[in-house]
Amino acid sequence: MLGCSINLAEDLTANTHNYLLKMRNAGFEGVFTSLQAPEQTPEQTLKGLRELTKWCNDLGLGLVGDISKEGLKLLGMDAEADSIQKLGLTGVRIDAGFNSEEIAKLSQVMPVALNASTISESDILDLRAEHANFDHLEAWHNYYPRPNTGLDRNWFIQKNTWLKKYGFKVMAFVPGDSNLRGPIFAGLPTLEEHRNKSTFYAALDLLELGVDLVYIGDNDLSAASLEQFVEYLDGEKLLFHLREPIAKLSEHTWHQRADLSRDVIRLEEGRKLNLFQKLGKLAPRKRGCITSDNERYLRYEGELEIIKTDLPADTRVDVIGQILERDMDLLELVKAGQTIEFK
Questions:
Q1: Where would I find the 6-phospho-N-acetylmuramidase C-terminal domain in this sequence (predicted)?
Q2: Are residues 178 and 114 part of one domain?
């Protein structure tokens, strides 16, 4: 499942609604928002939440709100389950202040996301003792606005393995790549290594790690990234953006061969179509280059490859194009039989 985020510290506008609409149409199913960000006033939060719950309900999107006891108090609310239900959320992420009894009662009436990073075995035992509905409990990681504070990959993997042992679904955030959220404007990833990566790559990386729910932490997504999500959700296609247009590549759908090579991605349709017959540019085969074997490679003529690691120039191999830097990390996620498209 994929989701996006809405910042209630900013006024909701027609652009906000259009963003939710395009994300829903792309295949995203959930929305996350915080009811306790320090930069938003209680009046602003409640006004925005009323509008947001209506939009999400109309669009068929789930809406999870980040709550704490102190934050609810500022909104003029108590922490009782029936009071929280009146917010119109389809689920809540519990922050500070709630004890096991309160969380257990809340889990009886709605989905509850616990803090994935801090939950302990004693917390789980306490929740069991309070008869929590574990079918309604999930484990959600934080996002980290300040550079260098995002989670370590190995620790993240170990924590998630432990959480899944207890049956929790795990959620994590990836940064957006348009209209980054303030006041730091440095992305909102869960993993620090994703801070300056493409949104699409970071999302696929989390899914490869077994994360069940991936949400974009920032408030917007570029058209290029959205198109990659659309293609992926329509048959797990990987869309690579070209530095310069190459119509012969963009007009076809390609597939990585069933056998996976170490140094290159081999497009199985290349030799059959043999689209680049004229001897082309001799150049070092840098990572991300697209190459075509020429007639000097005899029966390999027409072989199309994407280079995964720097290779020397070869008179039998012509460099015909280059994928954009932002898509380089996707090279490591191409699987055997993977469908690939170029734009």
A1: 249-343
A2: yes
Taking alpha carbons only, the member of 320, 342, 153 closest to residue 237 is 342
- Claim to verify: residue 199 and residue 72 sit in the same structural domain: yes
Whether 207 and 83 map to the same domain: the answer is yes
- pLDDT tens, residue by residue, 52-82: 999 999 999 999 999 999 889 989 998 888 8
Q: In total, how many domains does the chain have? A: 2
Segments forming the whole domain that contains residue 303: 240-342
Domain stop point among 234, 260, 287: 234
pTM strictly above 0.70: yes
280 plus 200 within the same structural domain: no
